[in-house]
Amino acid sequence: FTSLNAAKFSVVLNKNEDVLYSNILALADVIIDNRSPEAKEKDSILQNFLKLADKKHPVIFCSIVGYDSKENKHRRALDVSVQAETGMAMTNAPNPSFPLKVGFTVVDIATAFKAASHITAHLFYLKNQSIKNLVIHLEVSMAKVSAQLQMGQYLKYAVEQKETHREGNR
């Protein structure tokens, strides 16, 4: 946690610090939010800020979600549960009856890199633009990232109809 979060600025606000929260949002170029959809929707200060017509500069709002389908959007997602539900634990299994999670938070880390990549691309786009009130909404799904990490295994199964499992360190 410490190595991945070094040099980040963190603030804890009390419920009565709405003005400070609004001021922090007004300064932000990028907002990354991994709260549940309900929490994001209930955050009236955030929602009002995103709808505000007189922003001084464009803002990128990146929402990290567990699942991107409408049926599953509101489900909680942890790295280990996403590994289990997307088949990664089976791919990492030494045999078909022993699913095994990857030994580190691979889905969390890969999702963060995917979000960073999307954000960087949009920052480059905005660099030479003179747009003010634009909010660019991005969404990155942990389940989709997990599926992308396993594309080779998915394709192998589609072609050969054979499940792949870990063999030693392979």
Your description of this structure?
The chain is mainly alpha-helical and 170 residues long. The protein is 44% helix and 11% strand. The chain is built from 8 helices and 3 strands, in the order αβααβαααβαα. It has helices spanning 18-27, 37-42, 44-51, 79-85, 88-91, 106-127, 142-149, 151-160; strands spanning 30-33, 59-65, 135-141. A 3-stranded parallel β-sheet has the order 1-2-3. The two termini are 27 Å apart.
Write the layout of secondary structure elements.
Elements: H1 18-27, E1 30-33, H2 37-42, H3 44-51, E2 59-65, H4 79-85, H5 88-91, H6 106-127, E3 135-141, H7 142-149, H8 151-160
Parallel strand pairs: 1-2, 2-3
Helix pairs in contact: 6-7
